[in-house]
Amino acid sequence: MRISKWTMALAITGLWSAQNAAAQTISAAAAEYDAYYSQPASPSDQAAPPAPMGEAAAAAPAAEGGSCGCEPGGDDCGCPTCCNSHCGFERCCALDCGDADTVRLFDDICGLECRGIKVYGWIAGGVTANGHNPVDNFNGPMTFNDRTEGQLNQFYGVMEKAVDNEGCGWGFGARVDVLYGTDHRLTMARGLETHRDGTNKWNNDRFYGVALPQAYFDVAYNDTTIRVGHMYTTAGYEVVVAPGNFFYSHTYTHQYGEPFTHTGVMWMQRWNERLSFHACAVTGWDNFTFPPGNTKGSFLGGATITSEDGKGALALVVTSGEEPSVTGFEPRNYFSLVYSRKFLCDRLTYVLQHDNGVQEDGVVSTVGAPVQDAEWYGLSQYFLYQLNCCWSAGMRVEWFRDDDGARVTGLGSGNAVAGQSFPGNFWDVTWGLNWKPNDNLIIRPEVRYDWFDGAGNPYNDGTDTEQFTAAVDVIVQW
């Protein structure tokens, strides 16, 4: 099995070069996985408590060589107006944005509230412009905003009863998610929304349809939870639910390198305040059918460790099992590492993700050539800064290598590059803003530049190796 050890070593070196690695994870693999999806929020919501700004702060004299009344380089400034760990470098202030107050349509229905049942969701849609103005109206292999036109990406509804045992005694819960929109076709599971041959089961429309990405039951006892059903994966940083992402568009890693959903049994264990585990017996990647049918069993598991100061986290998720290949079902092994860290009074968030996957007998490179293994891997970095209580700015840089041309292709009927393979390196840089004037509305403008180094032309109807897009979407939570 070919594993690119140098990419893993590079990622781990970058992860541990920062001190106090590992704190409050933004990865969906955290112990608070269920709470994360139950309460989707924009990254602009994540604010730290304010620094005290009273009369004592105003009267505090500045030390010679320091800007906040303490010695330069000290670990603790000891001054209410200094938020950095090094005096004299720069002063910042944490934001006091108050508690989230999202207005939900069904929050005041007594029959639901007294039973602990919540019904909520959101509507997310946007428009994308492509500098090439492609004839097929597709942005090559880019997703979820894959069309150069307006899209209703998600009309999303959730009904759930979260486990509420507070870590003590027995607790029971359940959740069902329903998604309508253009994003449904990028997240469908074999045997549920599609037939075994991949044809659509529920929907006849070319772009719009329905998906059921989650439907599960939870049984908890103290700090242990058992989940049974159909659920989102715990791998990676980006997620399907629109309010859980900073950017409108998604990385190649998220679309082509990771699973979206699993079906099976998940065990989740909170070991202590800093360490949690989970392990699953599932039916594979994006597959709803059960053995002994056209499927095999797989393992999914991971761990998350958080740092003492609560500002960083390191999450590892691995999957292993037999998945569809050129010759039938062959082993697929995959891992995802996500490191996150907060700086500057928790206003700056840095995220580094490294993925690596290998599928045995995954590709035939050319007609008549022997079957060979397929490998994919990459690095993604995020820099997210909260400007104020309403505005956040972000940048994302990704490198994704489809080593054997087995993963990335055009998606959707009419896409000029549908079914084509592109062995090589995909690069993309995205700059964006999040504007949240209130807790129910998020507007996300972005600009993005993609380029490809390898065999083929994935952009502009299959004629170019680069593309520039500008997009904006609106999320209204209900």
What can you see in these coordinates?
This protein has a domain of 325 residues: monomeric porin ompg (Porin), CATH 2.40.160. The protein has five helices and 16 strands. The chain has a 16-stranded antiparallel barrel with strand order 1-2-3-4-5-6-7-8-9-10-11-12-13-14-15-16.
Provide a compact summary of the structure.
This protein is mainly beta and 478 residues long.
Per CATH, which architecture of the domain at 5-46 and 109-152 and 239-477? Beta Barrel
State the CATH superfamily name of the domain at 5-46 and 109-152 and 239-477.
monomeric porin ompg
Binned strand content: 35-45%
Task: Tell me the total number of β-strands.
Answer: 16
Q: What letter string, H or E per element, gives the SSE order? A: HHHHEEEEEHEEEEEEEEEEE
End-to-end Cα distance:
47 Å
Count of helical stretches:
5
Helix content: under 10%
Any idea what the radius of gyration is? 23 Å
Which CATH top level class of the domain at 5-46 and 109-152 and 239-477 fits? Mainly Beta
In spatial order, strands of the major sheet run: 1-2-3-4-5-6-7-8-9-10-11-12-13-14-15-16
**Tell me about the biggest sheet?**
16 strands, antiparallel, barrel
CATH fold name of the domain at 5-46 and 109-152 and 239-477: Porin
What is the general shape?
globular
Low-confidence stretches: 1-90
